[in-house]
Amino acid sequence: MNLRELWVDTKKELDSSNIPDSNIESEVIIRKVLDLDRNNFFATLNNPVPIRKTAQIKKNLQQRISGTPLSYITKNREFFGIDFFVNENVLIPRQESELLVKKVISYCKKQKETKLTIVDVGTGSGALAISIAKNLKNTNVIATDISNKALQIAKKNAKNIDVSRNISFLHSNLLENLKTPVNIIVANLPYLTSKEMNTLSLEVKKEPTIALFGGEDGTDLIVKLIRQAPKHLKKNGNLILEISPSQKNIIFSLMKKSFPKSKPKIHKDYAKIERAISIEI
Predict the structure, then answer these.
(1) Separation CA 116–CA 113 (nearest Å)
(2) Structurally, how many domains does the chain consist of?
């Protein structure tokens, strides 16, 4: 079987299982196993594919059909223009979370202080912390997570992306083990409600529950973090959180209560959805 025939067969299998974007996904599944970039993929469509490689592609295809996210099969996900290693121990970074990175970068560039300290709470794969460190060289970034497995992946990504010297890692439940005062707290914490957890797609159910479920109304961890924040933020500090649009009013009120002299701001993502909230103290 040549590459073209294998690609057609793989696409048909995905189509029959109602996998969206089958043309792209079939290409990605095959390219990953054959270690081909797009140019070489299209340049070798008439070449035969070794039996061993074909078997691996078929195996990965069956994983995808069974609901395993494509990023867990390929072990990578692009975020903020950076390629991250991911597996089933971490949440797959979403494009909408890039808004948090943009807000942190924008805030830092406006500050007079030259060496800012930023903590990314619940770092997972390290997507936020590493993207920030890569784009803001003169910062001290602390990445925390309650999961040791997640921290190992974040450390691996920091090494691969060459920002290890700018980031320290801390095993912590939110800010409990943080001893250093910081300029910015940024977090994409679990915020799905009990009801939302019951209606998740098969794909999302494959991701860690600890990275998705935020309690009955989705705000359990966010509420705890906001209450911890005043003790850890420096003067003129900033708290930036990803939220569900449905939680906007609850989080707005809680932030106002924790920081009575400041007013929270709501930020929209690429799709014009209210995706983040911040407050400068």
Answers:
(1) 7
(2) 2
